[in-house]
Amino acid sequence: MAVDTRSPSDPFATLGLARTFDLDLAAAERTHRELSRALHPDKFVSAGASERRASLAKAVEVNEAWRTVRDPITRATALFALAGIEVSETKQPPSTPAFLMAMMEQREELAEARASKDVARLEALAKSIATQQADAERALAEGFGKGEGRREVLEPLVAKLGELRFYRRAMDEVSAIQEELEG
Fold first, then answer.
1. pLDDT tens across 21-47, in order?
2. CATH of segment(s) 97-182
3. pTM for the whole structure
4. Cα–chain center distance at 42
């Protein structure tokens, strides 16, 4: 399998994938494994030092590309960067007051479920948050599909990425509460 060397900062190109949010992750993982096997240091034991260094650098690049594309948040961040839109947790538009209020209410419900050790309520909250997270991912997939890398179409999607980050943190909190209640 040939390794695409066009742009080391493009994780999609590194893995030979289309620049899209809606990826076939199983196929991407297979590609990652194939590239990892082809670039494994054991295959370059008898090669010269520069070739060993180059294969190791490419293997690191392939692994980093896989870490980027397999996670929806880092995948979206990479797609925004490739479209010339810099985003980070501290560099994105503020969430709407309605969204922030909903998140505050959700956190209060999580705190109440924790305090009362209400596993059924926690599971219902987890299901609701997971649905919201899936909706945000679907909106990102649709938006990136329509945007085709055009900045003016993609910029409004940055807010959805912010929402996705909120949902991820909420799901992390749910997991922590579940572990606490099980232990």
1. 999 999 999 999 999 999 887 777 777
2. 1.20.1280.20
3. 0.85
4. 31
